[in-house]
Design goal:
With about 400 residues, the chain is of the alpha/beta class. The protein folds into three domains: about 120 residues, no CATH class; about 60 residues, Alpha-Beta Plaits; about 180 residues, Vaccinia Virus protein VP39 (Rossmann fold, 3-Layer(aba) Sandwich), CATH 3.40.50.150. Helices cover about 40% and strands about 15% of the residues. The protein is built from 18 helices and eleven strands. The strands form two sheets. It has a seven-stranded mixed β-sheet, sandwiched between helices. β5, α14 and β6 form a beta-alpha-beta unit. α17 crosses α18. It is globular, with a radius of gyration of 23 Å. The N and C termini lie far apart (about 60 Å). The chain binds S-adenosylmethionine.
């Protein structure tokens, strides 16, 4: 597809989207109806739509409205793309740029203002308080794409050898600077899931920050380790692949269906994780990972819809669940055992503040380690804390 046809498709898809149905579903439906679009066209369309969703408010501001066409025009203006050329009325492309659109001008010179627009207004003071001097940098980075990252299964291969293996499948990778098991993908990301490195369990898709948080846990021989919010098992797989001691891994999730890929993934990685219906039957545990449901504010680059869908009620429900999960975890631990509490949030009220307040009120644990990561070129934003049962 020519660039202008891509633009027209982006406009059509954005006009179909109202946040009630997930954008991935809208994109799939669009692809079924428009079979002429090949996989590389679909990828370009998806990338552009996700770019626009990351910068939705500033695109509305620069484009003078919230229709698909306004959003695209705003995005092109903000990114200094020649508007006349992009909207030249060519076949299958967007209609010609009107004089009103051409003459609509707003001040785009204050970049701090533009960055701030792309954080929901009610969250700006909370994020400012939580991130201090890093606020502007974070607001800026959340508007950009994040790099695809892999976790190397160090049980099977070194990072350097994994880079060579990936190159055979035309995937260009380099060492991630933050995390000793992570690679950044510089090219060929669409080939990852059919590469021999992936199929044979040498690498997995996982953000470097998520891998770093998994490294907060120390494993000892015969430890019983429960991943209480396992989802697809990312954290327990990372821990199991990063240790040489014999530990026993268990996984649970309030939504059992979410764990459906764990067995395939652990088989590929060469580790064992037992799925549980009832976590109390195998208690007490030595270590519990609580990768809690949260605002996701540290990973809004990967899930830009999440940022616009979050509201005060949802945030307060997440915080209630986070407190409940920690107390449940304490009840399932042996005395002296550890919880590793993790969120992909940059909000203090889901992180330090939440655990500090809970520590004071419950008196059932103390904090022995913690780590915060802000969203950056090297990773998403995460918080992790190790809590010791007392
Ligand atoms: C951040 S995701 C976990 C991601 C996963 N650990 C990974 O690394 O791929 C949070 C998970 O917590 C689960 N969850 C939410 N409330 C829960 C609860 N009360 N008990 C257990 N799991 C819960 C959700 O179903 C979701 O899968």
């Amino acid at each position: 597809m020519k660039p202008n046809s891509i633009y027209q498709s982006v406009i059509e898809i954005l006009d179909l989207y109202s946040f009630e149905v997930k954008i991935e579903i809208i994109l799939k439906r669009w692809a079924v109806k428009n079979r002429f679009a090949g996989s590389s066209d679909r990828r370009k369309i998806r990338d552009l739509i996700f770019d626009i969703l990351r910068q939705k408010k500033s695109c509305e501001y620069a484009g003078g409205g919230s229709s698909g066409r306004n959003l695209l025009i705003g995005y092109l203006k903000l990114n200094n793309v020649d508007l006349k050329g992009a909207l030249d009325g060519s076949p299958h492309g967007p209609g010609k740029l009107t004089s009103i659109e051409r003459d609509f001008n707003v001040d785009l010179s204050d970049s701090d203002f533009i960055y701030k627009l792309d954080i929901p207004g009610w969250l700006v003071p909370i994020i400012k308080r939580s991130t201090g001097d890093d606020f502007s940098e974070i607001a800026k980075i959340l508007r950009t794409r994040s790099v695809t990252q892999l976790r190397v299964n160090l049980k099977k291969i070194s990072r350097e050898k994994a880079i060579v293996l990936l190159l055979k499948d035309k995937i260009l990778a380099e060492l991630n600077l933050l995390c000793s098991s992570a690679l950044d993908i510089l090219g060929g990301a669409p080939n990852i899931m059919r590469s021999s490195a992936y199929i044979n369990g040498f690498v997995e898709l996982q953000d470097a920050g998520s891998q770093l948080m998994s490294q907060l846990i120390t494993t000892n021989n015969n430890d019983k380790i429960l991943d209480l919010c396992a989802g697809a098992g990312g954290k327990s797989l990372a821990i199991a692949c990063n240790t040489n001691v014999l530990a026993h891994f268990y996984a649970a999730d309030v939504n059992y269906e979410r764990m459906k890929d764990i067995q395939t993934r652990s088989k590929r990685a060469g580790v064992k994780i037992r799925l549980l219906d009832d976590v109390s039957l195998t208690a007490p545990y030595d270590k519990i990972i609580i990768d809690a449901p949260c605002s996701g504010s540290g990973s809004w680059r990967r899930d830009p819809e999440g940022k616009w869908l979050l509201d005060k009620d949802k945030l307060s429900n997440y915080m209630k669940t986070q407190r409940k999960l920690i107390l449940q975890g304490i009840g399932l631990l042996r005395d002296g055992g550890h919880i590793v509490y993790i969120t992909c949030s940059i909000l203090d009220i889901e992180n330090e503040k939440l655990i500090n307040d809970l520590m004071i009120s419950s008196k059932s644990f103390k904090i022995i380690n913690k780590k915060s990561l802000i969203p950056s070129l090297d990773s998403d934003g995460f918080f992790g804390a190790v809590l010791k049962k007392i």
